[in-house]
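Action item from last meeting closed. Structure (372 res):
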């Protein structure tokens, strides 16, 4: 196993962060659970979303909507004849530990995609602004396909998620529209960076593609990329969201997304190893791609190469492992241990938040192309 950036973390400790999935009820319970590391469902101020004006970016906006209307992925999410056999062979060759990491990946990804579907669909139902309504309808369409495609892979294993039940039973978090824009922009762009990095790795090393779902990642992640472009245009059309004290919110959400990804990905070291990737190197490559893309809209950028940043990411992982171990221990000492590691994570996050950031001017042309 390729170790994360600290030699003190053993696989057994990392495995404590993943709840085993053996039945469909287990899969549903994992998808329904809401923690700091699991995908959440969101709701927002629909009246404020309805008032967003895109007239200042009209030319780029209309070109983007035409791309959505063209729907170049309408026939992409169909499983070919080889899918079932590739999946059967791949799953039969997995160790029990790798299988659990892969299931964690599938369930988390399905929940995240379905979260976007619900949010976008709810917005399009609750607004009258034709620009916002059209955009949200198209993005909900895309995310529904993504979630359904992943869920089909889970159903192959008898672990399909009841998406209707998930919509009813999972807790919802309210975010102001500007927080929705920051968080979902980052989610869509980092989703692109994650999927394209995996796709390029397996394109060069097809012998390491242990499940056929990875063959769909290139065109799939271009949907994610276009969704991010949509939020970039929305934010550039509301310039107050990208200046003043709002730059602090940009820093906060960028750090929160990176930190969550770093900890969550180190829960899956065997999955990355099976693909020929190191979890830490993979994450920093994803951060680098996301940072390059986000220059289109964010005037500040985290210094991911700063030694304090890298040490802080490792310490957040250590805190997550320590918290999981303390919770498993139980009793008074377990509670004290959980509190200690939670405080350690909060202190580390705060220290990372106040690191110096890089400032950059926003380009005249907003949209960029998925060339990574």
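Sequence:
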């Amino acid at each position: 196993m390729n170790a994360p950036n600290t030699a003190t973390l053993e696989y057994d400790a990392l495995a404590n962060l993943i709840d085993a999935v053996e039945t469909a009820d287990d899969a549903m319970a994992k998808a329904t659970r809401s923690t700091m590391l699991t995908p959440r469902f969101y709701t927002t101020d629909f009246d404020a979303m309805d008032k967003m004006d895109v007239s200042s970016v009209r030319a780029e906006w209309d070109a983007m909507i035409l791309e959505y209307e063209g729907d170049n992925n309408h026939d992409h999410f169909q499983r070919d004849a080889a899918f079932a056999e590739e999946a059967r062979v791949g799953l039969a060759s997995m160790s029990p530990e790798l299988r659990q990491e892969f299931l964690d990946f599938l369930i988390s990804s399905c929940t995240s995609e379905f979260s976007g579907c619900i949010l976008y669909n709810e917005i399009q139902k609750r607004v009258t602004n034709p620009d916002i309504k059209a955009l949200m309808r198209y993005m909900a369409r895309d995310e529904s396909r993504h979630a359904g495609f992943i869920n089909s892979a889970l159903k192959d294993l008898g672990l399909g998620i009841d998406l209707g039940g998930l919509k009813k039973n999972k807790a919802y978090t309210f975010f102001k529209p500007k927080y929705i824009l920051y968080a979902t922009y980052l989610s869509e762009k980092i989703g692109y960076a994650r999927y394209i990095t995996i796709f390029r790795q397996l394109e060069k090393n097809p012998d390491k593609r242990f499940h056929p779902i990875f063959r769909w990642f290139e065109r799939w992640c271009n949907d994610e990329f276009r969704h991010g472009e949509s939020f970039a245009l929305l934010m550039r059309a509301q310039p107050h969201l990208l200046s003043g004290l709002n730059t602090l919110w940009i820093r906060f959400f960028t750090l929160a997304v990176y930190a969550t990804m770093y900890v969550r990905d180190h829960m899956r070291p065997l999955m990355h190893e099976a693909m020929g990737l190191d979890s830490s190197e993979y994450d920093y490559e994803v951060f680098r791609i996301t940072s390059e893309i986000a220059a289109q809209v964010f005037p500040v950028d985290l210094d991911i190469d700063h030694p304090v940043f890298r040490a802080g990411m490792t310490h957040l992982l250590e805190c997550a492992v320590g918290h999981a171990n303390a919770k498993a221990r139980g009793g008074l000492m377990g509670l004290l241990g959980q509190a200690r590691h939670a405080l350690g994570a909060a202190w580390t996050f705060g220290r990372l938040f106040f690191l110096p950031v890089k400032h950059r001017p926003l380009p005249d042309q907003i949209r960029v192309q998925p060339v990574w």
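Note appended to the action item: Residues 96-126 form the longest helix (31 residues).
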